[in-house]
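Aim 2, interim progress: modelling of the adenosine-5'-triphosphate-bound target.
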Amino acid sequence: MALNYTFTMIKPAAFKNNLSGSILKEINEHGFKIRAMKLTKLTKKQAKQFYHIHKGKPFYDDLIQFMSSGPVLVAILEKKNAVKEYRKLIGSTDPTQADEGTLRKMFAESKSHNAVHGSDSDENAKLEADFFFSRFERY
Ligand code: ATP
Ligand code: MG
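Predicted structure of the complex, ligand included:
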């Protein structure tokens, strides 16, 4: 059975540009419940750990620089089939390719500054949620 939660992060540029409220409103209106949330800032080491699968790719250094450049809002979101449903809500990595009504279409500046992260599998949702939150921070 699919996991009933996923992990999301409002990335540095979207947070800095005060888009968090609008993004969270969309998330709630699409039936996701917030089970954990906090403001934090990734160290370079944490950003590298988080995006280790992209090591060696041409955009990797910029990605690590960007993701550790300022505060991010991280959260665990609950919904039936959460991972799949949330990937649908965030849209394509590149906002120019994203469907109308998706978070990246509405809030992303570019492919590298694309507003939000969403886990891409149940396995990663669990790993990412555990990376940021202890069980005492989840309700
Ligand atoms: P995320 O993991 O952040 O939710 P994603 O799963 O849609 O995004 P990935 O392929 O995992 O996309 O890429 C991770 C991040 O690396 C992207 O969100 C984007 O910021 C950046 N990225 C990916 N491909 C490129 C690219 N070709 N040029 C610039 N940045 C890229
Ligand atoms: Mg990804």
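The longest helix spans residues 122-132. The chain has seven helices and four strands.
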